[in-house]
Amino acid sequence: MRNWKFAMASTIVGSALMLGACGSTDTGQETSSGEAGVEGTVSGDGSSTVAPIMEGIVEEYAGVQPGVQVTVGTSGTGGGFEKFIQGETDFSNASRPIKEEEAASLEEAGIEYTEFQLAYDGLSVVVSQENDWVEDLSVEDLKKLWVEDGSTKKWSDINPEWPDEEVVFYAPGTDSGTFDYFNEVILEEEDLVSSATLSEDDNTLVQGIQADPNAIGFFGYAYYVANQDTLKVVSIDGVEPNNETIESGEYAPLSRPLFTYANNASLTDNEAAYDFMTYTLENAGAMADAVGYVALPQEGYDEGLTELEALK
């Protein structure tokens, strides 16, 4: 397996990726699921947080099954579910559980699906390395900073010893599951500060925060890991995100699971989709570790494979 943390630091996932060979199939190759020489197309969309895991899996899968073309977009968890509901994709990546209204829309559309958990993430609050005053924030500090209250937010509002400088905010776009999760557990459904720069592309957020010592933002842990030379992670109530605190849940309330949702009809009718999802579940743990997320215990992937096999 290539060094995915290094690869992410160079070029993390763009707005979409399309990996997979269109040439001739080597019928002697097999996936670990035992399917030789599979051919076809598979499409997915969704969370940019989940994208680093999927980017690595898709690229390595292309070497195993060159006859399968897999395309994955990154329009955000909500945007991905919109396409999934329309029947445009075989799977949808999500950094939050599916919402009741999304599940209802899928039922109305006659689409049955299966949820597969891929990894754990610790939603990371970050500032520039040039910021030499912020080391730790409480959940209440985060809410004071990020909730729109009509005021101009300054660092000195949190601590009078900090600079009397306006805070510059960067946040995932409103279609992002990361936005939804932060909104639920930190903002408690109040409005996000209106001055924030929003983007579905986490790389845009990374670059903005890197360039401004007064900036603050949040995104998935893997994006911090890939850019830790130029970003500083902020501990929350004294707990810094790392593999141990994320897996244990000590990094609360910002630890969360990452998912992909698969269309059951695609899994049963499209051999390529079934084979790709099998490969995904067999390799998600190693890839999560490689890109900077936290793998599930092996039994989590075994349960997913059992659910998948029951659909065949």
UniProtKB/TrEMBL annotation:
Cellular component GO terms held in the UniProt record: plasma membrane
GO MF, one annotated term: phosphate ion binding
Extent of Polar residues compositional bias: 24-34
One Pfam family linked to the record: PBP_like_2
InterPro entries documented for this protein: PBP_domain (IPR024370), Phos-bd (IPR011862), Phosphate_ABC_transporter (IPR050811)
Keywords, ordered alphabetically: Cell membrane, Lipoprotein, Membrane, Palmitate, Phosphate transport, Signal, Transport
Membrane topology: Lipid-anchor
Transmembrane segments: none
GO biological process: phosphate ion transport
Subcellular location: Cell membrane
Signal peptide start and end residues: 1-21
Annotated region (Disordered), positions in chain: 24-48
Every PBP domain range: 32-281
PANTHER family assigned to the protein according to its UniProt record, in alphabetical order: PERIPLASMIC PHOSPHATE BINDING COMPONENT OF PHOSPHATE ABC TRANSPORTER, PHOSPHATE-BINDING PROTEIN PSTS
Assigned protein family: Belongs to the PstS family.
Oligomeric and partner information: The complex is composed of two ATP-binding proteins (PstB), two transmembrane proteins (PstC and PstA) and a solute-binding protein (PstS).
Known role: Involved in the system for phosphate transport across the cytoplasmic membrane.
Name this polypeptide is given: Phosphate-binding protein
